[in-house]
User: Fold Probable chemoreceptor glutamine deamidase CheD from Extensimonas vulgaris.
Amino acid sequence: MSVAEPHRPTAQHHAASAAQRALLAQLKARPRQPGEAGFFYIDNHFGRVAVKVLPGEYFVTGEDMLITTVLGSCIAACLWDGQARIGGMNHFMLPEGEQGDASGRYGSYAMELLINQMLKLGARRERLQAKIFGGGQVMHNFTTMNVGERNTRFVHEYLRTEHIPIVADDVLDIYPRKVAFFPMTGKAMVKRLAHAHPETLEAQETRGNAALLAKTAAGGSIDLF
Assistant:
């Protein structure tokens, strides 16, 4: 009876792993702009170098990597220039802050940061496309106007004013979401998490207690994972 040879990684696997380690080291070592995400890691699910965008942060790149975030009532806008193969994501918490409050926590400034960095890296405004996520009603007994609805309405109005088409979205409803965006290809993937308060999103994701759903909009696609 023959015995199968144990699987050994090929030279290609070694090269890919080395390339990932080199990219990860490069990203961690480079200077960061104010508000730019800086939590870099290897995402084992997708097998790629990734960056996690936290509330108030953004990230833009032309590298073959992954941009991720976890959302409750917040919004993440993913922008992409398919010709330049540059993409980026932000993560804002409220539509507007106090006058003169330049913080990525607020939608108006977060969108400005994201667009300006896209253009700085070589994207063209007329080629930009958007995919938007979040705006969930995840807070129980919230008596004022729903934050997720306000954020969603803001980002729709902002992108319409800037003439940037929204080619796909997954917004509103009651679910927190985890989003994975591939900036070179413009592909976006979303995982709707079981309902939880925003402060438990990361813990819930760690436990793997997730419900998988996805929605497609005309002109673009969002895949589940």
Remarks:
- The domain at 11-224 is CATH 3.30.1330.200 (60s Ribosomal Protein L30; Chain: A;).
- Residues 1-15, 202-219 have pLDDT under 50 and may be disordered.
- The first helix runs from residue 11 to 29.
